[in-house]
Amino acid sequence: MVRPVVAVLERHLLLYRRLWRASVFSAVVLPVLFLVSIGVGVGRHVGEVGGVGYLAWIAPGVMASTAFQVAVGESTYTVLGGFKWGRGYHAMRAAPVEVRDMVAGWLLYVLFRVEVAVVVFLGVTGAFGALRSPWAVAAPVVAALVALAAAAPVTAFAASIDHDSYFALLFRFVMIPSTLFAGVFFPVEQLPQVVRPLAYASPLWHGVELSRAATLGVAPPWPVWAHVGCLLVFFVAGVVWAVAAFGKRLQD
């Protein structure tokens, strides 16, 4: 099983080698610029949040949001294109490569994309003095959990649809609200009580709170195992759905 998974990962990395320059701005440069402009610029007017400066408070949220957005973005058009336009997955199946190997190799590639962006972001955050705890070294692990929790179900969704217009709905009603209301820019406690369960249902919120706990050395709102458990539920459910969706798509 390991060799086909590695082969799938290698294929995606070879394709990415031709396109990596186009992703540097959105995955690395843009989050860093956003951190500087919002964390430093707006932070001067906001002051402290939770007893720390706004830059230190917002940085882990932006980092988790970066992992979330990269995972979602990578798992939409690329996956659908692999079935509908390039038919790369059909070629893999003829190799033959098992469906589970395709899904595993793809998720490993998404992890690679996310971890590169997160490590660079973490380095810049440390240079600005926004890391307040040695537990910050666990932030890439949290980012990996967020990436898997987001990429697995979105990959399954992309494999289940026939038209890319559905992605506009995904971005508008899932990704953007999650980014805005998952505690990235302000505490979820400031939301109306009736809206908070929607934030808690987002994998991004769990990632934001775990990242913040790691970089600031504070306890998250829920026990760590509860946050991790929620992310793993999204991941496992997404993998099961993705394997089923890939298998059905390749039989059509």
UniProtKB/TrEMBL annotation:
Pfam families (alphabetical) = ABC2_membrane
Q: How does it sit in the membrane?
A: Multi-pass membrane protein
Query: Source organism's superkingdom?
Result: Bacteria
Q: Does the keyword Cell membrane apply?
A: yes
- Gene Ontology MF terms in the entry: ABC-type transporter activity
* Gene Ontology cellular component list: ATP-binding cassette (ABC) transporter complex
Annotated keywords = Antibiotic resistance, Cell membrane, Membrane, Transmembrane, Transmembrane helix, Transport
Q: Which residues span the membrane?
A: 20-42, 54-83, 104-131, 137-159, 166-188, 224-246
Q: Which residues form the ABC transmembrane type-2 domain?
A: 22-249
What is this protein identified as? Transport permease protein
**Keyword Transcription among record annotations:** no
* GO biological process per UniProt: response to antibiotic
Q: Where is it localised?
A: Cell membrane; Membrane
Q: Which organism is it from?
A: Streptosporangium carneum
Record-linked PROSITE patterns: ABC_TM2
Query: Which family does the record assign?
Result: Belongs to the ABC-2 integral membrane protein family.
Which residue stretches, if any, does this entry annotate as coiled coil? none
Recorded hits in InterPro entries, A to Z, give: ABC2_TM, ABC2_TM_bact-type, ABC_2_transport, Nod_factor_ABC_transporter
